[in-house]
């Protein structure tokens, strides 16, 4: 780096003069070179007899502007019918005028943007916003049934404002509005609409916001297809209704808004219920409810009559009589069963007793038989079981005898 470029830094004791600061700023600005700039013409100053034309070029989406200087020949060659509000593209180089310390763009070419090019830009922006999800159906919010306060953004004393207010109040007289009047076309419209949108969105009492404007040309409705405005609508916490132009008009905020209304009148119908219609619906609902209750009472009354006519309720003692008869029959049946069982048991007992008696030794003794036992109690069944002289006990049917064996049968 050369010695000339290594300049000492400015200090309070060694400040730079104005000319040096101006030269440095000029050097920095000159580095930008020639650029293409897109903007909206806010003002054209053609001085009679002068060859230089001054333009004020404004950003469509922000409160920023630049001064553009060009020759009358350049303007007549590129945009001879240029008027305030037109959209242009200029090829210019930034310059700083040291005498006034002012900054401007010096243009050597100016092109007025036609409707076809504007529509092409809008279509390109539409695809971009759609890809980012700003048009997604799932993010659309439902409007409140009866909003306590409605925010309205529209032009001052416009037909759109009158249509929304009159139709909404005709449908629901108690509806409350907070209206913000803005420019709806031309320079500064986008910035004013965005500011109004943010102010209404910050108001906790506002439950729905309506953007309303009457019909117009493509250039007139251009502000409502601005990218910054579309993103501002998407960022709102409050549901937004777009009512721009007529049914055939479709600016980009129609796709971003939660609800699209074909006209401002249609917007009024969408945001407020009709008092007359609601009263009729309530009356019809009450009539259906009355019929339902009457039908229910009639059916229940008939059911009660049917229940009361049943024997169990018409003659409740009949059930007791029937059960008493059944109890008596069961008791008699039980008695007969018990008697039969006792009789059968008695017969069986007598038969068993007879068989027992028939098999009893006593019965044998009663028939004249005797039981002979030795002294040790052993029953004598054969003559060989006793000896001569052995004493025996003889059991009879009545009593017992003692005898002695004189001679054994085998010995005789």
From TrEMBL:
Keyword annotations from UniProtKB, A to Z: Cytoplasm, Exonuclease, Hydrolase, Nuclease
OB-fold nucleic acid binding domain boundaries: 17-111
Enzyme class: hydrolase
Reaction catalyzed: Exonucleolytic cleavage in either 5'- to 3'- or 3'- to 5'-direction to yield nucleoside 5'-phosphates
Chief place where the protein resides: cytoplasm
Enzyme Commission (EC) number: 3.1.11.6
InterPro entries: Exonuc_VII_L (IPR003753), Exonuc_VII_lsu_C (IPR020579), OB-fold_nuc-bd_dom (IPR025824)
Coiled coil, from the record: none
UniProt KW Hydrolase keyword: yes
Subcellular location: Cytoplasm
Domain Exonuclease VII large subunit C-terminal stretches: 134-323
Entries under PANTHER family matching the protein: EXODEOXYRIBONUCLEASE 7 LARGE SUBUNIT
HAMAP family with a match to the protein in the record: Exonuc_7_L
Summary of the function given for this chain in its UniProt record: Bidirectionally degrades single-stranded DNA into large acid-insoluble oligonucleotides, which are then degraded further into small acid-soluble oligonucleotides.
NCBIfam families reported in the protein's UniProt record: xseA (TIGR00237)
Protein family: Belongs to the XseA family.
Quaternary assembly: Heterooligomer composed of large and small subunits.
Name under which the protein is recorded: Exodeoxyribonuclease 7 large subunit
Taxonomic source organism: Pilimelia columellifera subsp. columellifera
Gene symbol of the encoding locus: xseA
């Amino acid at each position: 780096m050369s010695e000339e470029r290594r300049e000492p830094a400015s200090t309070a004791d060694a400040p730079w003069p104005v000319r040096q600061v101006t030269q440095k700023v000029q050097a920095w600005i000159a580095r930008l070179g020639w650029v293409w700039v897109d903007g909206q013409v806010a003002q054209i100053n053609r001085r009679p007899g002068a060859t230089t034309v001054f333009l004020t070029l404004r950003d469509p989406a922000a409160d920023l502007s630049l001064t553009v200087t060009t020759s009358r020949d350049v303007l007549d060659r590129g945009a001879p019918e240029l008027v305030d509000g037109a959209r242009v593209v200029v090829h210019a180089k930034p310059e700083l005028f040291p005498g006034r310390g002012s900054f401007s763009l010096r243009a050597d070419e100016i092109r007025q943007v036609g409707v076809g090019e504007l529509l092409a830009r809008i279509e390109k922006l539409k695809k971009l916003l759609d890809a980012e999800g700003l048009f997604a159906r799932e993010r659309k919010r439902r409007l409140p049934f009866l909003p306590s306060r409605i925010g309205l953004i529209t032009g001052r004393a416009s037909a759109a404002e009158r249509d929304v207010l009159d139709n909404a109040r005709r449908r629901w007289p108690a509806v409350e509005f907070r209206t913000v009047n803005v420019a709806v076309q031309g320079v500064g419209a986008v910035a004013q609409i965005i500011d109004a949108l943010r102010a209404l969105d910050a108001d906790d009492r506002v439950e729905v916001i309506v953007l309303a404007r009457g019909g117009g040309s493509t250039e007139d409705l251009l502000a409502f297809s601005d990218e910054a405005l579309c993103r501002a609508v998407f960022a709102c916490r409050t549901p937004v209704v777009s009512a721009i132009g007529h049914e055939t008009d479709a600016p980009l905020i129609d796709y971003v808004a939660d609800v699209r209304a074909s006209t401002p009148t249609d917007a009024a119908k969408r945001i407020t219920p009709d008092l007359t219609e609601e009263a009729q619906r309530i009356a019809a609902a009450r009539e259906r409810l009355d019929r339902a209750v009457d039908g229910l009472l009639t059916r229940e009354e008939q059911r009660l009559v049917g229940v009361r006519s049943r024997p169990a309720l018409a003659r409740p003692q009949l059930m007791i009589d029937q059960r008493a008869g059944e109890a008596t029959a069961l008791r008699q049946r039980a008695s007969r069963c018990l008697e039969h069982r006792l009789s059968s048991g008695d017969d069986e007992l007598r038969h068993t007793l007879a068989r027992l008696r028939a098999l009893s030794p006593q019965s044998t003794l009663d028939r004249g038989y005797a039981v002979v036992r030795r002294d040790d109690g052993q029953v004598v069944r054969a003559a060989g079981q006793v000896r001569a002289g052995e004493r025996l006990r003889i059991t009879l049917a009545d009593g017992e005898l003692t005898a002695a064996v004189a001679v054994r049968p085998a010995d005789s």
